[in-house]
Design goal:
single chain; mainly alpha; Na+/H+ antiporter like fold; 21 helices; disordered C terminus
Length: about 475
Amino acid sequence: MTRRALSRLLAYVLLLGAAALALWFTRSAGMDLKAPPPTEGAPGFGSREALSGARGLFHVLLAVIAILLSSRALGALFAKIEQPAVIGEMVAGILIGPSLLGRLAPETSAFLLPPSIEPQLGIIAQIGVVLFMFLVGLELDTSGIRKRPQAAIAISQASIVLPFVLGAVLALYVYPRFSSSDVPFFVFALFMGISMSVTAFPVLARILTDRKLQKTRLGVVALTCAAINDVSAWCLLALVVSIAKSSPGAALWTVLFTLLFVAVMFAVVRPLIRRWACRPGGEEPLSQTGLGLVIVGFLASAFATEAIGIHALFGAFLFGALIPHDSHLARQLELRLNDAVVVLFLPVFFAFTGLRMELGLVSGMEAWLVCLLIIFVATVGKFGGSYAAARLSGMPMRDSATIGVLMNTRGLMELVVLNLGLDLGVISPTLFAMLVLMALVTTFATSPALSLLYRGKSVHESWDRQHSLP
């Protein structure tokens, strides 16, 4: 060892000795000191309450790790069987909840996902869904509406009206069996109609992209119809939520404030956003300050709609829709936010949904028959309305059936609606489980139904040759 290294080691030993001596002196001097008594009601030193915060973080982190691993694994598995990975993530959220893991290994389930962390997971899930709805609005392309207004509007509205009416009629049978007297029937019927009417625009887009059909004429029509469907369904849902959260008089004020808010967003906020997105030098990378301003903007929009009495989701969606979807700003925002939302936040939302879903509540022959009836009504309403409108618009039979199959995709958007209904107390936990099963079945059936429609020939080749865009 060199002299320099030896001197450094000696200096280090002396430093540690001096620190130990200082700590010994501090301890000796403080032994006789007296502190004020603890505040009344505050957790005492070493108490279980004082340790709960740290243990809560431990369980939240452990739960998130388990959620991410299971969602990635099942997402990859479902991708191998030509299903969108998001369906596997949805199934993973249910499997690690009380419906499977809670039954097979209750002690493991209680350790990984104890009931005490449900509020924390709920906050993470809600923030994730707000971010997701902002991205959905950001990806909304209204150019297809201008290019094919009549067919797109007809198909999208028919795919809402028919399932909405069928769902409301179905409420006559479901309400006395799976609701409660404190839920007004009309609100329940409206919500049943909405739950049958939703199309999962992002999942549909994922299916078309995986099959390389998003540029074909039929793919563009399907995406356009789904976009119009989403906007219409969210407007209806906003109305239903305002009625559910308020008295009739207060609901009127909620509607008026909502219209005022939308007017301000389009008249004031939209021109400012477009001016910023189209400014000179707008192709430069988005700075952290710019990203922060956008995040503050859509959170403020979400806060405003929550304060008005509809839901934060609508404000986030609207703010995203005001940003030109083909602008550099939109592409930068998707690049910065999409992976975090898809990889981290949405799996937590699926798991949170799984924690709230108890398949054991759907027990007995009558309950399962009602569940099958809900799936049947949802499928007939969506497929039938879309198919009939497409045929009346002059589309061939097979293409009309394809549109009907695609519009029957529900997926994540349906889960957002159902969680909202459960939070408002409009639907019971049993009905929530039935409707989640409906969302899974109708979404899972999309890819096999497309393969069946084009059995024996290449779907992409058929569509691309006959219906490619000019």
